[in-house]
Structure formats: structure tokens, C-alpha cells
């Protein structure tokens, strides 16, 4: 049975004494208190990874990880707010610059780790060159690769991702699709994270199969994120 999401003192206990990045706190506050302050505000935050920026939004609030040459006044003039305008393509274009890279807009989902590994899911260092792993290595830190014995097409990555939080990504072999394999793999990822600690998944809203798999595994949608790398 899936555990209830912690709130109040329980949430503080679950986080322990770890000092989280402001972006992580921004996301987790929306998870712990989904009906908190909604005022349309936005806030500037420092990067959690060198060379990587982001725009994040939760209900009624936004956060922008911006280069130093982009001023708050300029962002406000572009219409950045907590009502959705932070993800305006003009904002992303200004942040990334003419030669920068902008990722797709993803929904952010969070769940608690269970600390109970699935014995069927094993380390798969031989899959380090899988496209899913290559993508994780380019954007995240401390990337671990897992999968199933005898299956070199199904892959699960666990890393330090958005805001320094544990983040998963996965891809199923074609033969495993349509059979609940995505939910099983996402649930297995929960087992690789200590009990009570947050686990993030970022998925395109159009990727309905993966979105549904994450929901079935107990993940809760809390906001959105769009990563970018500014022009060199």
C-alpha cells in the first residue's frame, strides 16, 4: 500500500537535517502544502548545477534560475509571473540566448521513497551508452543505471536532478509496454530511495503512457519545469 504524503512536522522529520537547494524547497513546499500561498509572484533562484538554468512553476507561483546578465526588471517586462507567463517562449528565448538550448516543458511529479528495493531490478552499468542514460548524464549528477537481467532495452536511471533532488527516468523495451511495466519500474525506483525521502519525475504532458504509469506508482503532480542552457 502506498504511504500518505507527509505534512507539517512529519514533513520536517522526513527531510531530516538536510539543507536543500532553494529550488528543491520551492517544489517540496508545493508538495507538502498544495493549497498554500497563491499570489502570482515569482522569485529568482541560484543554479543547482553549473551551466544549467530553469523556469519552474507551481500553483500561483514561479521560480527562475537566470543568467546574471538577465535582470529582474527585464524578466518582469517580459511578463514573468506566477500565473503561467514564466513559461512564455519569449522568456525562454531570452534566457537561453540565440545559441542556447531549451528543453521541452515537463510536468513535475513527486512521491516518497520506500527504501525497499525490488530484487528484480539490478545495476546495469553496461547500459551507460543508452540514449536515456546519455540524456540523464547531460543534465543530472550521480547518475545510477538499473534494469532487468537479460534485458538491454529497459532502463531506469536514478540521479540527483532538478534542485538536487533524487530524480528518475525510465524507458521500457517494446515487449514490456502496455502491460503495466512502466508503473512497476517507477515503483522499483521508489525502492531505491530512502523511506520518506522525495523522488521526482519530470515528464512531458503529452507522454500520456508514462504520465499514467507514474500516477499508478503513487506520484503526485506538483508543477512544471523547463530546463535550458544559455548561450556560451
Automatic annotation (TrEMBL):
Q: Which GO terms describe its molecular function?
A: transferase activity
SUPFAM superfamilies for the chain: Acyl-CoA N-acyltransferases (Nat) (SSF55729)
**Protein's name according to its UniProt entry:** N-acetyltransferase
Keywords carried by this UniProt record: Transferase
| Superkingdom of source | Bacteria
Amino acid at each position: 500500500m502506498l504511504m500518505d504524503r507527509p505534512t507539517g512536522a512529519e514533513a520536517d522529520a522526513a527531510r531530516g537535517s538536510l539543507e536543500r537547494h532553494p529550488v528543491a524547497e520551492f517544489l517540496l513546499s508545493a508538495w507538502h502544502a498544495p493549497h498554500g500561498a497563491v499570489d502570482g509572484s515569482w522569485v529568482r533562484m541560484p543554479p543547482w548545477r553549473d551551466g544549467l538554468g530553469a523556469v519552474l512553476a507551481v500553483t500561483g507561483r514561479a521560480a527562475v534560475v537566470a543568467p546574471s546578465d538577465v535582470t529582474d526588471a527585464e524578466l518582469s517586462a517580459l511578463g514573468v509571473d506566477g500565473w503561467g507567463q514564466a513559461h512564455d517562449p519569449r522568456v525562454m528565448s531570452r534566457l537561453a540566448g540565440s545559441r542556447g538550448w531549451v528543453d521541452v516543458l515537463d510536468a513535475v511529479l513527486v512521491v516518497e521513497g520506500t527504501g525497499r528495493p525490488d530484487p528484480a531490478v539490478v545495476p546495469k552499468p553496461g547500459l551507460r551508452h543508452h540514449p536515456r542514460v546519455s540524456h540523464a548524464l547531460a543534465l543530472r549528477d550521480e547518475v545510477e543505471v538499473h534494469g532487468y537481467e537479460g534485458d538491454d532495452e529497459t532502463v531506469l536511471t536514478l540521479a540527483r536532478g532538478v534542485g538536487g533532488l533524487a530524480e528518475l527516468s525510465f524507458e521500457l523495451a517494446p515487449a514490456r509496454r502496455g502491460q503495466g511495466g512502466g508503473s512497476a519500474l517507477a515503483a522499483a525506483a521508489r525502492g531505491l530511495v530512502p523511506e520518506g525521502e522525495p523522488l521526482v519525475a519530470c515528464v512531458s504532458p503529452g507522454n500520456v503512457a508514462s504520465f499514467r504509469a507514474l500516477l499508478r506508482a503513487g506520484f503526485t503532480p506538483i508543477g512544471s519545469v523547463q530546463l535550458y542552457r544559455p548561450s556560451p
